[in-house]
Amino acid sequence: MAKMQAKLAHQRQLTDRLEAAAKAYYSEDREIMDNYEYDRLYDELADLEKETGVTLANSPTLHVGYEAVAELPKERHERRMLSLEKTKSREELADWLKDQDALLSWKLDGLTVVLTYSDGKLAKAVTRGNGEVGEVVTNNAKTFRNLPLTVAFPGELILRGEAVITYADFAWINAQIPEEGEKYKNPRNLCSGSVRQLNNEITAARRVRFYAFSLVKAAGRDFSCREEQYGFLEELGFAVVDYVKVNGQTVHEAVDSFESRVGNHDIPSDGLVICYNDIAYGESLGATAKFPRDSLAFKWEDEQRETTLREIEWSPSRTGLINPVAIFEPVELEGTTVSRASVHNISILRGLKLGIGDTVTVYKANMIIPQIAANLTGSDTVRLPETCPACGEATRLRQVNEVQSLYCVNPDCPVKKIKSFTLLVSRDALNIEGMSEATLEKFIARGYIHTFADIFHLDRYRTEIITMEGFGEKSFRNLQSSIETARQTTLPRLIYGLGIANIGLANAKMLCRYFAYDIERMRHAEVEELSGIEGIGGVIATVFHDFFRTPEHNRQLDELLAEVEIAAAPAAGTAAGQPNLAGLTFVITGSLYGYESRNGLKEVIEQRGGKVTGSVTGKTTALINNDAASSSAKNKKAKELGVEVLTEEEFNGRYLKSETAQ
């Protein structure tokens, strides 16, 4: 078993190294590993996968195709999933244990998923749902970064675990969102939404991971204790929730140990779970109508402090949403000083009946995020601002799904403007280096920028700008150079940069592909047609449609189009607006001659509806490699699977009708 676990650990290390090298090569136009080393490690990984029978979801030896579905089908669980009875008392844990041994583990804070494997392959993934009926998310589960898609067990295998997004990945995802008010609130909600996406390309981008915590069934195998089950799952390649074995004498110390690690634990958790190690004993206890008797949840005793509410700060965002933030007398919580907490929306604010001067209790949710627990005064005297704190124009209360939120409806609100410009110049949009939010704020305040198009005419104010603090002739030249570079862009980047609510870069690409990169068709599309696009639901369709029914938005877009040069539209599609490479999948390797980088060719293929993946599979249409005689791993795989190997010239001639790179 120890040898197997060592091999699996090395396999994970190889997978991570190769994934990092592929990301740098394909997405960032840089090499951190030469082709010889990559191919050597790739072959070593492939051999290990054959030996262990385990293939992880992020392995470069396979590619999980991205799919979009119209809806997530529902399915009833074979065995009802109960909740756990909770306690906050260490003494109660010791009493509950009696003379039994148990396993104490993190209670992970994500989304519970039930996995079924058949013939060694992942066959089904279903969310917990209401405990009786869940949603089928099999395609999405195939993108979980550490999940084995194949295991060395031929019989039916059913297990439960938690899909989570680590704090580090959560911070990374939020760092890509320039607008503070639009950042995700916590990893749990982001994970839940990510796992239940209709388009698994979005799930893949969210870096979801899976940790097993319960073996439901392993056909033909019997286990006497849970510790054996965990060892069995680890041997199959699953990441298992961290645990320790405890008894009545050691449980206090173990809980203290877990608690000391909460602040530095990268995987979100909201407590601990304790379960009897002896499976037969646990099952003999049965269950109540709500809870199993073989397990118990331990919740941290939240450290709470009383304090006085000083004010409610109203924070406007790019979309106009005005977030209430509670400011209170500073208090010490979990070793740090806190003085503010988000109230999230008007419904929560009203539920707390807040008033300035009220005595409130505050705590850190999961020992990390400051929250108001209760209002001991309940004066309910806070009044919603009738005008936006940034522009002084009228506010409006809106309600969506029983949640009320406050908005500024002034399109010329300076905060909305600054945030909108910040998004437009961000990396995934026009990517103008040197134009930070602070710089934009100065330019807008001085009247240099009023509209999006004004960004491209800052040379009018060269004399004034080079005298500004933090600027000089060199800084201005660098900024101008970046602005000129930004004139060459793609339609998805431009659409994303417009700041349409719910339209991230992935959705922008999806829409562009559907409409064959025809901006006029896109902005005149009706809700019905938009709703019919895979991965675009009714809410996004309505927002997108309404955005282009506003004359000001169309004027801004027209002015932008006059300043930038969009990569040429794809060749005419073969059916109903579909690009001519739809349904085709390519892999690119080696040096190119007619394109600046592999990303350049990848962009051309994707513009025409095709896909570019990092590894050759049976679904690959062709491998593009100018060195057809190469003995690289990709060439070997292509020959083994009968996948055609094309030179760059052959690919252009056959699929692009001799078009040159754009």
Silhouette: globular
The end-to-end distance, rounded to whole angstroms, is 54 Å
Q: Give the C-alpha Rg.
A: 28 Å
Number of helices: 24
Give the uncertain stretches in residue-range form.
Answer: 572-579, 658-662
Biggest beta-sheet profile: 7 strands, antiparallel
Strand content: 15-25%
Task: State the total count of DSSP E strands.
Answer: 26
Q: Give the fraction of residues assigned to helices.
A: 25-40%
Helix and strand composition category: alpha+beta
Whole-number mean pLDDT? 84
Task: Provide a concise account of the structure shown.
By secondary structure, the chain is α+β, with helices and mostly antiparallel strands. The chain has 24 helices and 26 strands.
Overview of this protein structure:
With 662 residues, this protein is of the alpha+beta class. The strands form 7 sheets. Strands 14, 15, 16, 17, 18, 19 and 20 form a 7-stranded antiparallel β-sheet that branches. Strands 3-13-12-4-11 form a 5-stranded mixed β-sheet. Strand 25 (622-624), helix 23 (633-641) and strand 26 form a beta-alpha-beta unit. Helix 12 (414-424) packs across helix 13 and helix 16 (491-497) packs across helix 17 (505-514). The longest helix has 26 residues, at 2-27. The model is unreliable at 572-579 and 658-662 (pLDDT under 50).
